[in-house]
Amino acid sequence: MIFEIVKSKGLSHKSYFIGSKGAAAVIDPRRDVDIYLDIARAHDMNVELIFETHRNEDYTVGSLELSKLVDAEIHHGAGLDFEYGNPAHEGDIFEIGSLQLEVLETPGHTNESISITVKDKDASDDVYMVFTGDALFAGEVGRCDIYGPGEVEAMAGSLYDSIHEKILPLGEGVIICPAHGSGSVCGAEIRDVDITTVGYEKKTNPLLQKTRKEFVEHKVAERFYIPPYFKRMELNNQQGVDILCRLPQLRSISTVELQEMFESVQVVDVRDPESFAGGHIPGTLNIWNEGIPAFAGWFLNYKTPIVLVDQDGSRIHGVERYLIRLDYDNIYGYLSGGFSSWFKSAGPTETIKTCSVHELREEMEDPSIFLLDVRKEWEWEEERIRGSHNIYLGILEKNLKEVPKDKKIVVYCDSGYKAGVAASILKINGYLDVTNVLGSIMAWKMAGYPTSGD
Ligand SMILES: [Fe+2]
């Protein structure tokens, strides 16, 4: 038996390749599918089946892409009218070599969510592992707000029943393979582990210690932001998207070309915030490399061509994959030689001020400062730097009227990365005096400075 976890950084997405005796299945493939082809080739296997645990909302699934390349059948839950693939129902059984895969309907995150159990018939009739999608994670369970606030109570009840009636009875030793790991927008407190079991989750997962009533109340009280691109991913994953066959070839763009096309493209600088602060192309958005999966969907549109800028042009291809997973087929090219080539060719540059938490501590009584916290609202409510105002990064641009133009804007977040994105947005929108607090609240607390909360 071959079993491999394919992780996609940033999205904290996990897909799985499982195979036996020359046949294989892939669970929840991402859109850049070359990795599954590489695994299949390495183990001399044919991918025959593709499963989607649910209609994913945070990325565009690669099922059609992979299916086209390997001629595999796609199966997903029967509770939604997909325009491709085949509906899988409770109890449906699929054979992959000695492996027997069986479908469990486990609604709650979405109505059509399924889990898939695996038995190795050569070894035992017992369930060995289960792919739980967004129903059950390590230390967490899935979101129940996908259909809107009015549906959360019903979905939470449904999720509780799916977990307690379908997944937990599978047996203490059954390995749980969820669709996301720590850091995903699909679960608040997912633990950072690769492997967990039903027994371990029963003992340690705080959500599984609750009664049904407590569980539903907890889910109803839970708060999440829904990035605007989710709607597009949901449609994509229900209707299917264009087949890429391979990653698009990005154009290498000279500094002169970029200057000429600047007004008609979206330029994203993917360097870290301190590099961006030290010098950048005026009018560019800064989203640090690893922040692209979580934040591109808040700020980039799907029509205007996207041009990427990094330090020297060498880190672009990872970003391209991140964007393709979010269906940004309008990615156009990258600045040849990166920002280094820009300033060497005398392109205009701007800077953003930075400060340490010690400097902030000394200056925070200055009445001309507007201290802006761009973390999530509930993080700010729980603990913040005294005197700060909160606007979550994702909704900052829509709420700029709350940020005074006549003050010095000092931005902080967890450690300075999201504050870097916010600083670039403020600069683009005409704020002249913007400072990013490097280290942000993490460094503030490390220095022993006081925080306050409700
Ligand atoms: Fe999901």
UniProtKB/TrEMBL annotation:
Transmembrane segments: none annotated. Residues 261-351, 365-453 form the Rhodanese domain. InterPro entries: Metallo-B-lactamas, Mito_Persulfide_Diox, POD-like_MBL-fold, Rhodanese-like_dom, Rhodanese-like_dom_sf, RibonucZ/Hydroxyglut_hydro. Its EC number is 3.1.2.6. One of its GO terms (molecular function) is sulfur dioxygenase activity. CDD domains: POD-like_MBL-fold, RHOD. GO terms for biological process: glutathione metabolic process; hydrogen sulfide metabolic process. This is Hydroxyacylglutathione hydrolase. It comes from Methanobacterium congolense.
